[in-house]
Design a protein that fits this description.
Keywords: Aminoacyl-tRNA synthetase, ATP-binding, Cytoplasm, Ligase, Nucleotide-binding, Protein biosynthesis. This protein has 414 residues and is of the alpha+beta class. The protein is built from 15 helices and 16 strands. An eight-stranded mixed beta sheet has the order 1-5-6-11-10-9-7-8, with helices on both faces. It has a five-stranded mixed beta sheet with strand order 13-12-14-15-16, sandwiched between helices.
Length: 414
């Protein structure tokens, strides 16, 4: 067969067969577990007014300046394919008038996201995320519970032994102000040893230097001050509350003072679930507290916390793909039996039995197709069976066969 010159766009991929079953298993498991914690699912648009992301991700961030798919629509409006899910959820909270009543709102989402970046293992330009957000809760218990939900999802997927939760605190505003001053003083002394990009960040957003991938910067960061000595009493108490709740909820963690979030609306808890099983792309779930984000959207102060996780990365950690359902093959022997076979296959489906009907070929060819499908049983109906109101039921694993009344097929195969 000639190969088409039409291929998936760079950085995208088709989800077919085993890969799709892995993907769906991750999303469905996350839906089920998050519902146990009281999360309701929301679906926001795949594209938004560009300001939704430019305001919330930071005009100078790599996502906004280098990675967003932004374009003018036919009406001259600037729109952007969503690069992440939190901003859309916060925008939905505000524009649907949900900021005053029934808080906190516990929201789960799942769907495609888009970033223009170099494709690599576990990273695509169109990728998929699940996420949980608790909007309207200022207490440390909300941070611990949203983390526990993410941990529970990983346990339900059977991948928790391959990931580690790392946590840190960003403190409150006074804590961060004092920490920024300490970082600026430290990195200013480094002078030309800082990368050009980090020198540009020094005055505007020194916390982002801690995220630098430059090898020279990384060596400096290892010796940089941490936030712990700069925490206010209130910020320290909040962090203690998160850790106590995680201990009580049975969620293991280790502290990593280098986990940061560069934007001002982030505060207190920052966390990541990391793994060594995916090479350089070691983060599979990440989040934190973003008490100022809803306000950035034009809403009232609404303390919030949440996380997002890449479905592709989580699915790569699964030991095995969920098995495809094994159907029952319904086979008509002779043209006269096709009507009875159609009645039988539809009756099985209504009873919740996965059933396939062969469209053509003699009995041998139709049985060969049943084997290719991995069918667990074959229901064979010929003229003799029609006259008796029955079918031959062949167990394709055991190799046994018996005549069964049509009215009892569904019960026997359920």
């Amino acid at each position: 067969m000639a190969k088409s010159d039409l291929q998936p766009a760079r950085g995208t991929h088709d989800l077919i067969g085993e890969e799709f079953r892995r993907h769906r298993h991750v999303a469905d498991t996350a839906r089920r577990v998050s519902a146990l914690y009281g999360f309701e699912e929301w679906a926001t648009p795949i594209f938004e007014d560009t300001r939704v992301f430019a305001r919330t991700l930071g005009e100078t961030s790599d996502v906004v300046s280098k990675e967003m798919y932004t374009f003018e629509d036919r009406g001259g409006e600037s729109v952007t394919l969503r690069p992440e899910g939190t901003a859309g959820a916060c925008r939905a909270l505000v524009t649907n008038g949900l900021t005053q009543a029934n808080l906190p709102r516990k929201v789960f989402y799942a769907g495609p996201m888009f970033r223009y970046e170099r494709p690599q293992k576990g990273r695509y330009r169109q990728f998929h995320q699940i996420g949980c957000e608790v909007m309207g809760a200022a207490e440390p218990l909300a941070d611990a519970e949203v983390i526990a939900c993410g941990w529970h999802i990983q346990q339900a997927l059977g991948i928790e032994s391959g990931t580690v939760l790392e946590i840190n605190t960003l403190g409150d505003a006074p804590s961060r102000d004092a920490y920024r001053a300490a970082l600026v003083a430290f990195f200013r002394d480094a002078g030309d040893r800082l990368s050009e990009e980090s020198r540009g960040r020094l005055e505007k957003n020194p916390l982002r230097i801690l995220d630098s991938k430059d090898p020279g910067d990384r060596a400096l960061v290892a010796a940089a001050p941490t936030i712990a000595p700069h925490l206010t009493e209130a910020a320290s108490a909040f962090y203690d509350g998160v850790r106590r709740a995680l201990d009580r909820l049975g969620v293991p963690y280790r502290e990593n003072p280098r986990i940061v979030r560069g934007l001002d609306y982030y505060s207190h808890t920052a966390f990541e679930f990391v793994t060594e099983r995916l090479g350089a792309q070691g983060t599979v779930m990440a989040g934190g507290r973003y008490d100022g984000l809803v306000e950035e959207m034009g809403g009232p102060p609404t303390p919030s916390v949440g996380w997002a996780a890449g479905i592709e990365r989580l699915s790569m950690l699964l030991e095995a793909a969920p098995a495809a359902p094994r159907p029952v093959a319904v086979i008509a022997v002779g043209e006269a039996a096709e009507g009875a076979a159609l009645d039988a296959v539809q009756a099985l489906r209504r009873a919740g039995v996965v059933a396939e009907i062969a469209y053509k070929g003699n009995l041998k060819r139709r049985m060969e197709r049943a084997n290719r499908l991995g069918a667990r049983a074959a229901v064979i109906i010929g003229e003799e069976e029609m006259a008796a109101g029955a079918a031959q039921l062949r167990d394709l694993d055991a190799g046994t066969q018996e005549r069964v009344p049509l009215a009892e097929l569904a019960e026997r195969l359920a």
